[in-house]
Amino acid sequence: MAHTERIGLTLPGGEGIGQQEQLELVRLAERLGYDSVWVGESWGPEVFTTLAWLACNTSRIRLAAGIANVFSRTPGLMAQTVATLDQISGGRVILGLGTSGRALVENWHGVPFQQGTQRLKEYAEIMRLALGGQRVDHQGEVFQLRGFRLNMEPLRPRAPIFFASITPAGLRATAEAADGWLPIWTGPEEITRGMRQIQAAATAAGRTLEGFEVAAEVHGAVSTDPAVRQRAKAQLAHYIGNMGVYYHQHVTRQGFGKEADAIQAAFARREREQAAALVTDEMVDRLLLIGDAAACRARLAQYRQAGVALPLLNLLGGLSKAQVMESLEALAPGRG
Fold first, then answer.
1. Which of 121, 129, 201, 264 is the most exposed place for a label (fewest CB within 10 A)?
2. How far is the C-alpha of 174 from the C-alpha of 152, rounded, in Å?
3. Is 199 a member of any domain?
């Protein structure tokens, strides 16, 4: 498969797609040549149990946490988890890390949401020591560890670590400590700008970006059904209006500040349908992947031209199994 055709899949869930159907889709993605499957985590299924299950039922496709937050597990436990899963899977693990948000971290995990970007950087540094088989001595602002090393031989000395970041501070942390960038709800134009910021921050930190990759979450579906487009608007509105300030600010930076303000205000009034109606077609076309197969493949080409090595197909919630499979097959490497 050509390098420019690499594509990953975010594990679909929701209505009509149970655990066995998920496994069938991942196996289909593997047969179709998808590079990796990315599994998210909020307050539903636990990510690494899911990845271990997939590891035991696949043979080639890479297995990615997309994403695990850096508050609910210590970096030592995360190093143990990644080293174990890497052995089970034969070296197929990718680790996507992020800070998540205050509501989930404090109200679900009961942990203070503090020093997120610093925690993210130190977390990666500690994991690199541990997975490299070294003694972990780390005296940081967030973590103070000393005197331990993994009591096992890691299969690989370095598993790829991607940071999910959309804020300026997050981009700086990504430039300083990550192997790759994992943006979400981000059009190709903003990815180009983001990579300029990452390159500048890496240069300032004395770091080269050799081997650095962008794996961009691209929400959508291969469909011309107006109902699917409306579903896309509702999903984007939910992130902007109901998922904290980060997505509102992120969409504003991409030129949709007026719309983001109106959507946020509608959510504050609990007018979800009105909020979805305020998402414009331009927002959908700039930030998502919606249309027939040819249009979606052309859009993926724009992401690749912007520097995305690995687009990640994140299918809209609420799609039928048939719609999921249609999108998966239409966007597989080498199609079209």
1. 201
2. 28
3. yes
pLDDT (tens digit per residue) in 13-38: 766 678 898 999 999 999 999 999 99
Q: Is residue 85 part of a domain?
A: yes
Q: Which two tokens stand for residue 236?
A: 């984007």
Which phi and psi (to 5°) does residue 154 adopt?
-60, 140
Q: How many helices (H) and strands (E) are present in the chain, helices listed first?
A: 14, 12
Q: Give, for 163, the enclosing helix (H) or strand (E).
A: strand 161-163
Q: For residue 336, is it within any domain?
A: no
Does 320 reside within a domain?
Answer: yes
What is residue 5's predicted lDDT score, i.e. its pLDDT? 86
Could you tell me the two tokens for 64? Answer: 């990615």
Q: Name the nearest CA neighbour of 54 among 11, 97, 15.
A: 11
How many separate domains does the chain show?
Answer: 2
Per the structure, the complete domain to which residue 204 belongs is given by 3-226+289-330
Helical segments of the chain, H only: 19-32, 47-55, 75-89, 102-107, 116-131, 168-177, 188-204, 226-242, 245-251, 257-268, 272-277, 281-287, 293-305, 321-330
Q: What does the pLDDT read at residue 336? A: 64
Asked if 164 and 274 sit in the same domain, the reply is no
User: Bridge-partner residues for 218, per DSSP?
Assistant: 313
